[in-house]
């Protein structure tokens, strides 16, 4: 994916109780599995999501194969975002993990019908707490279109700082788009005046 933060997609009903890998105050994170391929396919096939993420529609088989490859990738962790009623509202991932340098990238996708309820911020805060509280990360980064106002707001609310702009870094539908580059450092996270995920 060219772009890592997106607020878009479709709603999908919860199918079964999922075991949580990480719990925060208002959402839980469950490891993404191949069984969620159809759900993920519906989210990334949404035209708005495709634009914001910077991808073209893929077949269900391709999405399933991608999930299978990602599960085997030791440098990334993908999670479904589950509120208390266990209905999946999106996904969040910690990718490009480099334990030696203490760096990783954050990716976020919220289904369109679940936007505006704070799930994106809650999920981003939760995965940030995982990166800094359980993993030895020092620097997290994220990117999104400079025009993706909801994603820009979520990143700022979670304490990320915009470092700059990657000009014309994404091609979509024949047009070049600028990407806003964000980061959050461990000392900045430590100064955030909010409860941590393990305080839930």
Account of the 3D structure:
The chain has 200 residues and is of the alpha+beta class. Helix content is 28%, strand content 31%. It has helices at residues 37-44, 47-53, 60-72, 119-133, 149-157, 186-190; strands spanning 5-7, 22-23, 28-31, 77-82, 90-98, 103-110, 139-145, 161-172, 175-185. A hairpin with a 4-residue loop joins strand 5 and strand 6 (103-110). Helix 1 (37-44) packs across helix 3. It is globular and about 40 Å long. The N and C termini lie far apart (32 Å). 41% of the residues are buried. Residues 7-15 have low confidence and may be disordered.
Please report the distance between the alpha carbons of the first and last residues. Answer: 32 Å
Category by helix and strand content: alpha+beta
Number of helical regions: 6
**β-strand amount:** 25-35%
Percentage of residues assigned to helices: 25-40%
Largest sheet: 9 strands, mixed
Overall mean pLDDT: 85
Shape: globular
Give helix and strand order, one letter per element, not per position: EEEHHHEEEHEHEEH
Query: Low-confidence parts, pLDDT < 50 over ≥5 residues?
Result: 7-15
Radius of gyration: 16 Å
How many β-strands, per DSSP?
9
Outline of this structure?
The protein is α+β, with helices and mostly antiparallel strands.
Kindly list the characteristics that best describe this protein.
single chain, alpha+beta, nine-stranded mixed β-sheet, globular
Fold blueprint:
Layout: E1 5-7, E2 22-23, E3 28-31, H1 37-44, H2 47-53, H3 60-72, E4 77-82, E5 90-98, E6 103-110, H4 119-133, E7 139-145, H5 149-157, E8 161-172, E9 175-185, H6 186-190
